[in-house]
Specification:
single chain, 119 residues, alpha+beta, four-stranded antiparallel beta sheet, two-stranded antiparallel sheet, flat
């Protein structure tokens, strides 16, 4: 089995959702996570604070610069993620479809690098 990152793409420029919609989304995503666990696909899940809570550590010329805020200046940021294991990309995409419907956000599916590219 291969591991995949299912990354929730969050538009931080959109107005915040009402609390009742956030709670409903959390319930829907919790059900998908429970389904993943029951199927043996779940590895890890996490939600992230908005990008204004980020700190970026950049190397350059043998020194480090630390800045507040996101790495990329864009309205769409990583809002949360699932790490799953799946037999193939088609199976990972099927999980991503469920995740996208549950959270109402785009999901980027990316396989983990197994090291084979470096051989």
């Amino acid at each position: 089995m291969r591991q995949y990152l299912l990354a929730v793409q969050l538009d931080e420029s959109a107005p915040p959702e009402p609390e009742e919609e956030v709670q409903a989304m959390m319930a829907r995503t919790g059900k998908v996570t429970d389904e993943m666990k029951a199927a043996g696909a779940w590895v890890f899940v996490g939600g992230l604070r908005h990008s204004d809570a980020a700190t970026v550590v950049r190397p350059g010329n043998g020194t480090i610069t630390i800045t507040d805020g996101p790495f990329a200046e864009t309205k769409e940021q990583l809002g949360g993620f699932w790490v799953i294991q799946a037999d193939d990309l088609d199976q990972a995409l099927a999980w991503a479809e469920k995740c996208a419907l549950a959270c109402g956000q785009p999901i980027e599916v990316r396989p983990f690098d197994d090291g084979s590219r470096r051989r």
